[in-house]
Amino acid sequence: MFANNPDDTPVNVCSAIVAQGLCCGCGMCAGVCPSQYLGVQFNMYGELSPRPQPESVCSGCGLCLRVCPMSEPSPPTDRIAAELAPQWGQVSPDAVLGFHLRYLVGYSAADGHRANGASGGMGTWVLETLLAKGLVNAVAAVGPGVIPETGAICGYRWCRTAADARACAKSAYYPAELSRIIQYIRSHEGRYAVTALPCAVRALRLAMRAVKCLRERIAFIVGLTCGYGMSAFAAEYVCADAGGNPWQLHEITFRIKQNQTPSARVSLIRCVSGQRTDGEHVSLQRSDEAFGKAGGNRWFTRRACDYCDDAFAELADVCLMDAWLPAYLRDVRGNTVVVVRHSAVGALLDEAVAKRDITLADVTRDEAVRSQSPLLWFKRRLIVERIRSARKAHAPLPTLRTDLYRDDLSPLEAAYARVLMHMRDASPRAWLDSGKDPVAFRRRLRAPSLAAGLLRKLIRKGCRSCSE
Ligand SMILES: Cc1cc2nc3c(=O)[nH]c(=O)nc-3n(C[C@H](O)[C@H](O)[C@H](O)COP(=O)(O)OP(=O)(O)OC[C@H]3O[C@@H](n4cnc5c(N)ncnc54)[C@H](O)[C@@H]3O)c2cc1C
Ligand code: SF4
Ligand code: SF4
Ligand code: SF4
After folding, report:
1. What is the pLDDT of residue 256?
2. Distant-in-sequence, close-in-space partners of 388: CB < 8 Å, separation ≥ 6
3. Among residues 273, 237, 265, 218, which one has the least CA distance to residue 87?
4. For residue 229, how far is its CA from the centre of ligand 4 (angstroms)?
5. Does ligand 3 lie within 6 Å of residue 23's CB atom?
6. Confidence band, pLDDT 50/70/90 cuts, at residue 259
7. Residues 223, 196: contact at Cβ < 8 Å?
8. Residue 197 alpha carbon to ligand 4 centre in Å
9. Protein residue whose Cα sits closest to atom 1 of ligand 3
């Protein structure tokens, strides 16, 4: 049991995490709460967060805090990874990449995987293979379609067939939460796989430590590298910038491949909005336009992401990411870097390579790290300034691995980190205050955007590896 709040109400994630601005929206707390006290809803800023449910009572059991990836104190990610290492196989530790068996790069040769995947289609291949081999009964992946409980336009859904898994291909830069998935696993025996971003992977591992049936039933976790999680406002902004109606956004599809782009980094985003009866507005926009600018400036990202230092989903059985490496950028068909941890996943990959179902080559450790250098700069270097600012303001922080970060930021880097924090903080309010008009919104954030652009240029001049 945890001590009560000063007003004698029980401490739970609502007071200890959400009210402190630390929630990443993973939904795990609501998935495990034995009193059904928590339900996940969108807040006024387009972020998913748990909320007390009417007519239910919190018993103060503290389980939500034990499974919350942002709860402090909870074990640091590398300590949990060290506990998992024996079950993974002959893994080696690495301070940046986490434990690993091998690093590979390539793509799935199965019909449609690569063309429909975000990068090399390896995510869909892994999920489909786990199902086909009977290693799991179902996989939880993120795909299109309204989630009735929250009104989200995409989210977690169960896949039991190859066709289901294929319908969930690509990356959803949109809030996705696990509560319904966890409730289902708790009440249905079976073996399951889950795809997840690093914070949700951490939540899954904490929940598996705390809840026996989750430990027994979650057989595989397929992690994705993650630079930042975005609120639903990011999707609205992209839709509005392409001439659509952000108040009536029905569908958004990221990472549509196009043959004519010069780089695998650039894809298309399709939005469908407007009154279904009066004709919908359908737009296609390049990812390096509104979306790229929003991500680069950290607009619509969550405060929790400011303190996230896990680039490679260190607690997942396998982690997938884009091959942002010079040798692969020109190949617009897409390639996935695969960090293998679980020996069973390694064996599946070996078998498929031998049968030419997939094409994979080894990459060096340095190449795997280099494929994520801008992300690592943000997560492992600029984090120092974000922590410093939080401590100065006496703001609460999640469990951190401060021994991993070198406190030698240049004044320019520190200033850049502060401008990004400011924009992360100001952007949701600015979007609302501008009436969801992208031009008015950008006007409101003009000064910090210009400052960030200037600082980026100055930093790039002094330090190429920081910004490439
Ligand atoms: C929010 C987000 C941020 C990312 N940031 C980076 C980054 O900075 N650098 C980088 O290299 N890669 C990043 N990725 C991963 C990258 O976009 C691809 O997902 C990865 O390369 C695998 O591509 P693929 O073609 O092999 O997989 P696919 O065949 O496309 O399969 C991807 C699988 O991931 C699932 N999925 C999609 N979105 C989510 C989600 N939000 N939560 C959980 N599961 C999901 C899908 O349902 C699908 O099963 C990010 C992904 C997301 C969703
Ligand atoms: S898990 Fe326990 S402490 Fe948390 S909200 Fe539910 S009943 Fe309350
Ligand atoms: S981070 Fe996840 S577990 Fe923690 S409060 Fe938010 S939704 Fe709940
Ligand atoms: S940056 Fe970290 S906290 Fe934010 S969505 Fe990605 S994994 Fe979660």
Report:
1. 96
2. 414
3. 218
4. 5
5. yes
6. confident
7. yes
8. 7
9. 23
- Across 185-209, b (16+ Cβ under 10 Å) vs e yields beeeeebbbbbbbbbbbbbbbbbbb
- Determine what percent of the chain is predicted with pLDDT higher than 70: 98
Q: Is 226 in the pocket of ligand 4 (CB under 6 A)?
A: yes
Evaluate if residue 334 carries a pLDDT over 50: yes
Q: How far is the CA of 121 from the centre of ligand 1 (A)?
A: 10
pLDDT reported for residue 463 = 63
Cα 91 to averaged position of ligand 4 atoms, centre (Å): 24
Q: How does pLDDT run across 420-467, given as a tens digit for each residue?
A: 999 999 999 999 999 999 999 999 999 999 999 999 999 999 865 554
Mean pLDDT of the chain: 95
Which ligand 2 atom sits nearest the alpha carbon of residue 52? 5
CA of 321 to the centre of ligand 1 (A): 7
| Contact (CB, 8 A) for 159 and 139 | yes
Task: Please tell me whether residue 157 adopts helix, strand or coil conformation.
Answer: strand
The CATH number of domain 77-230+305-371, selected from 3.40.50, 3.40.1350, 3.40.640, 3.30.9: 3.40.640
Ligand 3 closest atom vs CA 17: 5
Among 11, 33, 49, 53, name the best residue to mutate to test ligand 2's pocket (greatest count of ligand atoms within 8 A of Cβ).
33
Residue 49: what residue type? S
Radius of gyration for the alpha carbons in the chain, expressed in angstroms and rounded: 21
Candidate from 59-73, 171-185, 274-288 with smallest mean pLDDT: 274-288
Sorted by where each begins, the domain ranges of the chain are 13-67, 77-230+305-371, 232-295, 375-467
ipTM for the whole complex:
0.99
Name the pLDDT band for 2 (thresholds 50, 70, 90).
Answer: low
**Distance from chain centroid for Cα 242:** 24
Q: Which residues line ligand 2 (CB under 6 A)?
A: 10, 12, 33, 35, 37-38, 58-64
